Amino acid sequence: MVSPSVVLLPIAGIDVRALVVGLALTTAAAYAGGASVAFLRLGHRRMQVLLSFTGGILLGVAFLHLLPHATRACGGRVDDAAPWVLAGFFLMFLLERAFHGHAHHAADPDHGPAGGCDHGPHAAHPPGPHHDHHPVEAGAIGRGGASWYGAFAGLAVHSLADGAALAAAMDLSAGRGGLLTGLAPLLAILLHKPVDAGLIAALMLKAGASPGLRRTVNLAHALLVPLGAAIFLACLRGAGGGREEFLGAALGLAAGAFVCIAAADLLPEVEFHSHDRLLLSASLALGITLAAGITVAERAFRVPTGAVQTDLPAAPSTVP
After folding, report:
1. Does the structure show a pLDDT above 50 at 314?
2. Which of 206, 229, 225, 221 is nearest to 31 (CA)?
3. Which residues, including other chains, have CB under 8 Å from residue 157's CB and lie 6 or more apart?
4. What is d(CA 189, CA 185) in angstroms, rounded to the nearest whole number?
5. Residues 164/231, Cβ–Cβ less than 8 Å
6. What are phi and psi of 163, to 5 degrees?
7. N or C: which end of the chain has fewer CB within 10 A?
8. How much is the pLDDT for 13?
9. What's phi and psi for 157, nearest 5 deg?
10. pTM, two decimal places
11. CA 124 from chain center: how many Å?
């Protein structure tokens, strides 16, 4: 039987208390990340350690948490879940390429040789269009306001996807762990959202945006994760008999997106730096280990699938 402390939404077993707490935390973290840019600098080395750690969390969550749950929601058929993972990876890759707005070093004043940052032998590429590894740094900032427009547009879609992933992870009828429901995806999102918000805020500062506009955009960005969760829940309610397939597709897409963010965005920025290799590699391993530990703990406290499904409120009938 489901614990009385777990409040279930009428739309099929979403742990509403855990979801509300998670959304409140991500909203606060995102807003704080954007608001702190004007007076707080993380520093280049600490930024790289954070990116390595976050990349490890994202990879661990994708492979050890989201992918298994997507497979379970697809009836245990990996062949049905894998295409959604690939689709999530490819869609996020296209998003990154379209907006060029997700390069976290763009707002780092210590980035590059002038700040003592050694990119190693790979940085000695001859100039030319085929070796522009970081378009945001090379061109977008120089275009003034166009840089933060593109960053906001790209990260807005990313935030909506994060909200959907968090809501999908809070589903109890797939057998997820009571108190630890959704903790691994929540941690990954909590670590990543402040950095994203800080990037937008820093680009707006460079573009000369007014403090009022910066606050408005920062608040709008922070609210996009709850909006993504609300959209997902509305779609889940309308899925009807195809609920499990829809949930499997959403979790698969989230897994692919998380892998893309880590493999195509965060880790390449770290790889370009020849300094602190051991520290950055250890941070990556620590992130993966933490995600694995949360997954193991979740399995230990997992709510039995049958008990949850038995206690779920019946969905309202649409047939008169």
Report:
1. no
2. 221
3. 95
4. 6
5. yes
6. -65, -40
7. C
8. 60
9. -65, -40
10. 0.71
11. 32
